[in-house]
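To illustrate the input format used throughout this study, we show a single complete record. The first block contains the structure-token representation of the backbone; no residue identities are included at this stage. The design step must infer an amino acid for every position from geometry alone.
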């Protein structure tokens, strides 16, 4: 393998996009309005598209003849390295929107920095993904404000969603030897460098939405090391069943 650290890093990013894209796609046909049904479906397509680009590049780095489909579908649960936040059930519309807002805000700032990566392919993926993330942030932020500063019920649901989701945010800023080596090479970014900017924007939107940011929580982690909640298993039952039933099938 040409660069094992880069391969692992790409797979982590790709797993995030794939699992979150799959989660959001569950709203297709069931969203509260037709317009939002289309919007969330576009969200899902964006994330799945990002995962394809990242898996394809990871397969190239690995150099073992695998493609994006094999890296996405033919893995055991512990081989997925996605964030725990992204595999949690959708809950109600407020939970989905709040999670999309918090995560997309992080990813927008992440991709902006990643555009300066010394790895040309990763920088190109970042340039395309940044534009998509900017839309995700704008759309979800508008809903956070609308629902947070809406009715008593919508405000309560958005506050509950924020309180439940926040315990998963710490994992976004964790680094290990894989990332630290790539950060030193100028290939990856240190997520801690975008923390203050990310938090400031979250606080601004929460203030406008009349929501409270409760940061005094115990942070959950483990997904990046393959330690997942039971919910990922349910996702994989649906995500992988075609490849598991008909291995190496072609359309």
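Output of the design step:
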């Amino acid at each position: 393998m040409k660069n094992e650290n880069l391969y692992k890093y790409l797979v982590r990013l790709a797993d995030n996009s794939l699992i979150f894209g799959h989660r959001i796609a569950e709203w297709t046909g069931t969203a509260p309005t037709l317009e939002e049904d289309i919007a969330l479906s576009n969200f899902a397509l964006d994330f799945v598209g990002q995962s394809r680009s990242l898996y394809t590049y990871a397969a190239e780095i690995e150099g073992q003849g695998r493609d994006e489909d094999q890296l996405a579908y033919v893995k055991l649960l512990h081989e997925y390295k996605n964030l725990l936040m992204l595999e949690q059930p959708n809950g109600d519309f407020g939970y989905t929107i709040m999670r999309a807002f918090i995560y997309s805000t992080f990813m927008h700032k992440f991709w902006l920095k990643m555009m300066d990566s010394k790895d040309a392919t990763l920088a190109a993926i970042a340039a395309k993904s940044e534009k998509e993330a900017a839309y995700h942030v704008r759309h979800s932020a508008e809903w956070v404000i609308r629902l947070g500063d809406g009715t008593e019920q919508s405000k309560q649901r958005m506050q509950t969603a924020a309180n439940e989701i926040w315990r998963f945010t710490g994992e976004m800023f964790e680094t290990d030897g894989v990332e630290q080596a790539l950060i030193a090479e100028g290939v990856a970014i240190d997520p801690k460098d975008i923390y203050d900017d990310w938090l400031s924007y979250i606080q601004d939107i929460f203030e406008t939405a009349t929501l409270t940011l409760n940061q005094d929580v115990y942070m959950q982690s483990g997904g990046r090391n393959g330690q997942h909640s039971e919910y990922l298993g349910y996702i994989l039952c649906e995500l992988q069943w075609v490849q598991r039933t008909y291995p190496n099938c072609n359309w």
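Structural context for interpreting the output: DSSP finds eleven helices and no strands in the chain. The mean pLDDT is 95.
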